[in-house]
Write a structure and sequence with these properties.
Layout (H helix, E strand, L loop, with lengths): L2 H29 L3 H20 L5 H12 L10 H9 L8 H10 L7 H8 L5 H10 L5 H16 L11 E2 L2 E2 L5 H22 L7
Antiparallel strand pairs: 1-2
Helix pairs in contact: 1-2, 1-9, 2-3, 2-8, 2-9, 4-5
């Protein structure tokens, strides 16, 4: 390893050492009865890592979604919540002409979280080509990750506090969906951190450059 590579390795390790300390401090906050603050920072760190990874400053919500889906190791974030999807589509002018048929299909999902590909397959027979193109690019807005961005990350940042977000009637594979709280997001952040660190150290290249 030449001096340039060695210097870069040192910088990468220092970056992740500092980030690890910041993440560890969130646990201290939560244990000290500052759960809202810990959760807010947790979600903000996830968003920041996503924006750095995907380089799209205009789609911060999608960056947040992608980093959770691709690096957290928790598949729940990619699943579509039927109520979130229904609210999303009925507010889009694009879907007004055939919203009745679309809502019939969405209502048929009941209170079960649905994989995105299943949503696409079920809506394809009644949706127009333009609608399908929109869904392929924006269906993430109906996911659990998007709910957390709107209802947790944004509420905490702009309104200081947020209500406990529970899904007592929502299921996936017959099991109740967990609450969206620090206990869900902190392990996700740690896993994201570990994966990005491993990527960077294995290649001696910043994760956002890969």
């Amino acid at each position: 390893m030449n001096d340039i590579d060695s210097d870069k390795t040192f910088m990468i390790k220092a970056y992740f050492d500092d980030l690890e300390k910041r993440i560890a401090f969130l646990k201290e906050l939560a244990n000290g009865n500052h759960t809202d603050e810990a959760l807010m920072l947790c979600c903000c760190y996830i968003e920041a890592l996503g924006s750095r990874q995907y380089h799209d400053s205009n789609r911060k919500a999608k960056n947040y979604y992608r980093i959770l889906v691709e690096f957290s190791g928790n598949s729940i974030f990619a699943l579509v919540h039927p109520k979130q999807l229904k609210n999303l589509l009925k507010d889009k002018k694009l879907f007004i002409p055939n919203i009745y048929h679309i809502e019939l299909i969405v209502d048929g999902f009941g209170k079960e979280l649905i994989p995105q590909q299943e949503v696409i397959c079920r809506l394809a027979p009644v949706a127009t080509e333009e609608q399908m193109n929109w869904l392929n690019d924006n269906l993430f807005k109906g996911t659990m990750a998007a709910i957390s961005y709107d209802r947790i990350r944004s509420d905490l940042v702009h309104d200081i506090s947020t209500s406990n977000l529970t899904f007592s009637e929502t299921t996936f594979d017959g099991k109740q969906v967990p609450d969206m709280n620090f206990s869900l997001f902190y392990p996700a952040l740690i896993k994201i951190f570990e994966n990005l660190k491993e990527m960077s150290l294995e290649t001696n290249t910043w994760y956002w450059e890969q």
